Amino acid sequence: MSLTDLNLSGKVAIVTGGSQGIGKAISLALARCGTDVCIADIDPDLGKEVATEIKALGQKSTVLPVDVTDSGQVANMVEKAIETYGRIDILVNNAGGASGANFRLGRVLRIKERDWDETIAVNLKSVFLVTQAVAKTMLDQKKGCIINIASITGLFPFAGMPAYSAAKAAVINLTKSLAMEFAPHIRVNAIAPGLIDTPRTIKNRTPEQMKHLLSNILRGRTGKPEEVADLAVYLASDAAEWVTGSILEIHGGQTWLAEWGQPDFRDAPKS
Ligand SMILES: NC(=O)c1ccc[n+]([C@@H]2O[C@H](COP(=O)([O-])OP(=O)(O)OC[C@H]3O[C@@H](n4cnc5c(N)ncnc54)[C@H](O)[C@@H]3O)[C@@H](O)[C@H]2O)c1
Q1: How much distance in Å is there from the Cα of 19 to the middle of ligand 1?
Q2: pLDDT digits 0-9 by tens, 228-246
Q3: Which residues line ligand 1 (CB under 6 A)?
Q4: 47 with 41: CB under 8 angstroms?
Q5: For 193, phi and psi rounded to 5 degrees?
Q6: What's the whole-model pTM score?
Q7: Which domains does the chain have, with CATH numbers?
Q8: Catalytic: 164?
């Protein structure tokens, strides 16, 4: 059962981090419902493959190379999207993550200032920058929808991930501020996923860590990017016209109390 029968035809979306993982699944799901999609990503080569898939579905798609932590690049990206499509109906602030050094050196006593800053920039500042650049157009249209991809770590922190958890908690709070500021014209919501099966999720964890994490998920498996995408399509649709300032959790029953015993990631293999 999928929600992708919802009709979003005629709409234009920007999906940050749309080249792979959850962002790719959201881009394809929106396109299946009739949306033209701008893929705004730091990795345009991967994005081109997604754009080709979207075009095969009969929708337009443009890859917009951007580092979402850089205000100048963000302004250019949004300008190009408006130049090409004339409007923006849906913004999905998805780019982010807790990969690489930020992931391994996560503990407060070990994290380097640079890693802290990078984690906050890609997960939190990016949401502010892209939203600021897009919101004026949506307010002029008197309609728009913003979806922020947060994380359940923003609701309860994971061991060894203080910077990422703090950034995602701030995204959840910012979502509510934005919903207030842009009401009644722009709806702003967040999705807080649990462990989703994307390449970086597996790459950054040992088999033992994966086993431990799965034992804390009531449904006994990781989530699929497409399952997060279904929620995004719902939020973007008119079916969610009365939904704003909300945080939709999707985690298969990932139980936070058990996370207290979760191993931290000091010994994760180098990526
Ligand atoms: N995978 C999970 O288990 C999980 C769980 C909860 C929340 N999330 C969140 O979902 C979002 C997507 O996660 P994912 O697992 O699909 O990640 P991913 O690493 O598979 O994909 C992230 C995408 O963002 C792009 N990106 C990274 N930095 C960028 C930058 N500075 N500018 C522009 N693009 C950039 C990457 O090129 C990539 O295409 C993230 O915000 C992540 O924090 C993921």
Answers
A1: 9
A2: 999 999 999 999 999 999 9
A3: 16-17, 19-23, 41-43, 66-69, 94-97, 122, 149, 151, 193, 195-196, 198-201
A4: yes
A5: -80, 155
A6: 0.94
A7: 12-261 (3.40.50.720)
A8: yes
